[in-house]
């Protein structure tokens, strides 16, 4: 029996068996996916709220599985994390995103910044710094055009090695952001000690910003907190014009969300960049 909360026990059902079967299937397939070139990156624009310009993009992984079809990250990142495969997958993401950004810059499409998600396992890997260095060297991307997205969970356990590691990353010239800001359990004290550049307001706070006074208060407080600490702030999951107006009028620097664009395949992102430059 699987323990569910305090006094509830739930017995395995056929549905749960299928679920664990799918996990095993995914794990096996994940091991081959890199060699078979089954991963792709989609790019979601990040827009400056003052100028309306695209200033960057977040790289988001998808898995084009021959039988399962397009598998979203929520279905395999956790498994990749548990098995440690995320370290190799994450290295591929970093290299691909940097190479793509450099290619767009060389094509005259603008000096954009690409944001890449870093998992806890990657953060803990011994060759993190060497890996970053070699990708920056090989792709010749200006480190200032790379942003590494971290989550608060990375800072929860033993903070001292984390601070050191962040300073080493920072000394390479890359930007560091805190993803899903406000959803973690860590204390805010790390903000003054860690060399962070950007806070990303989690989309759960943005969703009801125009209807829920508490969410609005949280968002305006995060914006003020960021600016007082001399950090930039970007809102995630912006889906409506009302949300955008609210964020802009409260001084949020950038936004990312379906209102402007979903994450796009590289070709489509490039088309979007070319169209906007032609305006
Ligand atoms: P995340 O880092 O918080 O990424 C933002 C997610 O929100 C993306 O989901 C994006 O498609 C979605 N999103 C963007 N705008 C909107 C919006 O306006 N409304 C709504 N409802 N959703 C929006 P996606 O691509 O499915 O990724 C889910 C999560 O998977 C990511 O959350 C991230 O934690 C993880 N992930 C994705 N790519 C990678 C990767 O390369 N490495 C690692 N370690 N994790 C990744
Ligand atoms: Ca992210
Ligand atoms: Ca996020
Ligand atoms: Ca989120």
Automatic annotation (TrEMBL):
It is found in: Membrane. It comes from the Bacteria. Residues 23-277 form the EAL domain. This is EAL domain-containing protein. The chain holds residues 661 to 939 of 954 of the full protein.
């Amino acid at each position: 029996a699987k323990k569910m909360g305090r006094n509830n026990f739930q017995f395995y059902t056929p549905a749960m068996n299928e679920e664990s079967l799918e996990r095993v299937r995914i794990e096996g397939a994940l091991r081959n996916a890199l060699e078979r070139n089954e991963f792709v990156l989609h790019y979601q624009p990040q827009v400056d709220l003052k100028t309306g310009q695209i200033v960057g993009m977040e790289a988001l992984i998808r898995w084009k599985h021959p039988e399962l079809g397009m598998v979203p990250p929520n279905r395999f990142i956790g498994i990749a994390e548990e098995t440690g495969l995320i370290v190799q997958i994450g290295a591929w993401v970093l290299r691909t995103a940097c190479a793509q950004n450099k290619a767009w810059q060389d094509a005259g499409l603008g000096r954009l910044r690409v944001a890449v998600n870093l998992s806890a396992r990657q953060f803990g890997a011994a060759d993190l710094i060497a890996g970053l260095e070699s990708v920056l060297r090989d792709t010749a991307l200006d480190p200032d055009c790379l942003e590494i997205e971290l989550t608060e969970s990375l800072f929860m356990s033993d903070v001292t090695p984390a601070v050191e590691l962040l300073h080493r990353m920072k000394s390479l010239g890359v930007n560091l952001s805190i993803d899903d800001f406000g959803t973690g359990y860590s204390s805010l004290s790390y903000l003054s000690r860690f060399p962070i550049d950007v806070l990303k307001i989690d989309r759960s706070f943005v969703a009801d910003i125009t209807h829920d006074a508490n969410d609005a208060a949280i968002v305006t407080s995060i914006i003020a907190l960021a600016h007082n600490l001399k950090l930039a702030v970007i809102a995630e999951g912006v889906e409506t014009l009302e949300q955008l107006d609210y964020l802009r009028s409260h001084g949020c620097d950038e936004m990312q969300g379906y209102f402007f664009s979903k994450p796009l395949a590289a070709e489509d992102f490039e088309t979007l960049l070319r169209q906007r430059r032609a305006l």
